[in-house]
Amino acid sequence: ACAEASVACSVADVREAELSALAANALRAQNTDQLEAAEAACVSHGRSGADCATAVHARDLQITELHTGIREAVTMAALDAAEQACADAVAQCASLVAQRRLEIEASLLERVRVAASLSQVDVGAEDCEDAFVSCSTVADVRKVEVETVLADLRTVPNLYQLDAALATSAGVSDGQALF
């Protein structure tokens, strides 16, 4: 009757089906919490859960590689590609992607904030545009700061004041306020 209904009736067949289901659950785990639960289920089956443990290990490596790709992304394009890889692998990476996106944006904004020349401000603003990050306000403020220092340098009547203006300029390039 079991064979006619294509149902596993022996204890070994049932055990094999359970282990296959556990391995499938491990391979479908979307995050490390689900993976740990799948691993615990595998461990509870003891030595006969070797295939299940292999599946847990394989999925753990895959999730680790996906997360590493996100953490190592240095451009928005690379981050978008890493995010898509997570989606393709049905892995949960949204919070890690959001965190990395903020880090990349902050880095771009900081480069514009501390630019030592107008050309560096322009390059930083272009980098922001390429990454779809809005840096225009920061770039505008920085341009005014740099232009003010440059204007002050043009009107310095003596070397003592020139040295002071250069020291101020150095402070501005370090990201310090002009006032």
Description:
The chain has 179 residues and is mainly α. Helix content is 74%, strand content 0%. It has eight helices and no strands. The longest helix is centred in the middle third of the chain and has 23 residues, at 50-72. The radius of gyration is 29 Å and the shape is rod-shaped. Mean pLDDT is 81; it is low at 175-179.
Properties at a glance:
8 helices, rod-shaped, 179 residues, mainly alpha, disordered C terminus
Summarize the structure.
The chain is mainly α. It has eight helices and no strands. The protein is rod-shaped and about 100 Å long.
- Name the overall outline: rod-shaped
Succession of helices and strands: HHHHHHHH
| Radius of gyration using CA atoms only | 29 Å
Largest sheet: none
| Strand portion | under 5%
From the N-terminal CA to the C-terminal CA, the straight-line distance is 90 Å
Topology:
Elements: H1 11-28, H2 32-43, H3 50-72, H4 76-88, H5 94-113, H6 118-130, H7 136-154, H8 159-173
